[in-house]
Amino acid sequence: MNWRRLLVLMAVGAATVAHAEETPQQLIVPPGQVIVQVKGVVCSFCAYGTEKNLAKLTFLDHSQFGDGVLMDIYANRITLALAPDAPLDLRGIYQAIKKGGYDPQMIYLRLSGTVTRQADRYVLRTAKVRQPVELIGQGLEQVPDQQVVDVQAHLDATQLSSVQEGQPVTMVVDTVEHPS
Amino acid sequence: MNSLVRQVPTGVVVATLTAMAVTGVAWAHQPVMDMAPRWEGGYGAQVRHEWHSSDDLKDGDSKVDNSFGRRRRVDTTWIEGIYTLKRELRFSFKLPWVDQSRVVVRNGIPIRQADSGWGDLILGMPLKYYRNLKNSSWNVAFTPSIRVPTGSTSADFPVGDGSTDFNFSFSHSREAAGLYQYYDLFYWVNTRGKKGIAEGDEVGLDVNLGLHPYHNNLTNAGVFVMLDVSARHKDRGVDTAGTTGGTRISTGPVLVLYRHNVMFRTEFKVPVYENVNGTQVSYGPEVNVGLGVVF
After folding, report:
1. Alpha-carbon gap, residue B108 to B116, rounded angstroms
2. Which of A8, A52, A162, B134 has the most beta carbons within 10 angstroms of its beta carbon?
3. Partners of residue B178 in chain A, C-beta under 8 Å
4. Of A138, A150, A142, A136, nearest to A28 (Cα)?
5. CB contact under 8 A, B294 and A99
6. Smallest Cβ distance to B211: which of A14, A18, A46?
């Protein structure tokens, strides 16, 4: 095999490594994890500071992935392993990534709790998030009041950047599961 | 090539192997240090060894007879550090330890000259603009630097030239998960030094084009394979051996290994074009080995 052919093969291989894009509904967040889509995370050495910042967050299960943080440079994603009982700090995640030199694009999470219907609003009471959670999106109208649900939801960069302590957080529901 | 291998100092080999054994893997050098540390409060350090040597005598772009055995060898160990105040602003330093020797001809007699010691300190302030895209990241940078005359000029072949010099660099790098590219255009303003040394100004272009053929998400370890092309043009000047300056293009492969926050970089370059002012010893092939860490 000559050098030119080898270089072409390597270039083609590198170009085909990129993953096919998933819709929020197609992405499945495993229980006990949060997935953050981050622009530009294509080199783990370059993103070491982001990983270091995230690993300091107290609500992570540091026994997983070495430090609770798994970077996937091919999918531009960071997966966080969550400690079972600690509420997660969305603003802390956002700031850790921004100070690490990258831009969070979307955060996907799975939450369990009780949905309360307030007029046309759906409020999720959950111990997993420090802020009150308001859900929007399709499928919620089927959920009875005071229903225990398991939802997968996401926030985009704008919503994530505006998260404030004590202020409600609006999340878009991707999937909702409930017994009834 | 065999003679080249014989000329690589044993100390370089031992230091490299020791560093690799201590750190597990390793890293270093400018282009990859270019991408990290990009985080606020991040800092890094690296040790990098450059070696180049030649006994080829050139007149312009032609190789000529070297019956007096003129030659030059320069070993430079760079101690480098960088601090990132914020993503757009860094501060860097480079301090060389130089060990060098050459054979010059004086009154028809070949004379060996040598010196070693700390060379001239380079302080830089990289100013960067980053853009993170969906599947890639790029930056452009402007870096003003100053080289201060900390090196001694006492020897016949001194490690310093006694001048304060200024550098302006414009660089661009872009990376995706499988590809890496880096371009750096720079200009050195060399002022008049001591002992009659007056190096000419230098313009240079460095290009790194590479693939990222292996990365393991679970271990944060991987490999870059690159091609380095370096072009230099230095105006006619003078040092303690005579005329300096000329044009040179060198190229060769680069291998980078990394794991977590540690990176090892090695490169080997040969001049593919060289046209010197007057008669000078060729720059020769160049070996570069570095080990770095970021925090």
Report:
1. 26
2. A52
3. 13-15, 17-18
4. A150
5. no
6. A14
Find chain A residues with C-beta within 8 A of B212's C-beta: 14, 43
Distance from CA of B36 to the nearest CA of A (A): 5
Cβ of B3 under 8 Å from any chain A Cβ?
no
DSSP secondary structure of B28-65: --HHHHHHS--STT-EEEEEEEEEEEE--EEETTEEE-
pLDDT band of A63, cuts 50, 70, 90 = very high
The residues facing B89 across adjacent strands are: B86, B127
Q: The complex's ipTM?
A: 0.79
CA distance B169 to B140: 10
Integer Cα distance of B214 and B221 in angstroms: 8
Q: Which residue has the higher pLDDT, A17 or B39?
A: B39
A-to-B residue pairs, Cβ atoms closer than 8 angstroms: 113
Summarize pLDDT for B221-259 with one digit per residue, the tens. 999 999 999 999 999 999 998 999 999 999 999 999 999
For residue A100, which residues of chain B lie inside 8 Å, CB to CB?
A: 38-39
**Measuring CA to CA, which residue among A103, A168, A43 is closest to residue B212?**
A43
The rounded mean pLDDT for chain B is 87
Give dist(CA B155, CA A121) in Å, integer: 82
Contact (Cβ atoms closer than 8 angstroms) between residue B210 and residue B181: yes
Cβ burial, residue B4 (10 Å; 0-12/13-18/19+) = middle
Residue B12 pLDDT > 90 = no
Q: Nearest C-alpha of chain A: how many angstroms from B286?
A: 22
CB contact under 8 A, A48 and B134: no
A18, pLDDT greater than 80? no
What local confidence, expressed as pLDDT, does residue A144 receive? 87
Q: Is B6 part of the contact surface with chain A (CB cutoff 8 Å)?
A: no
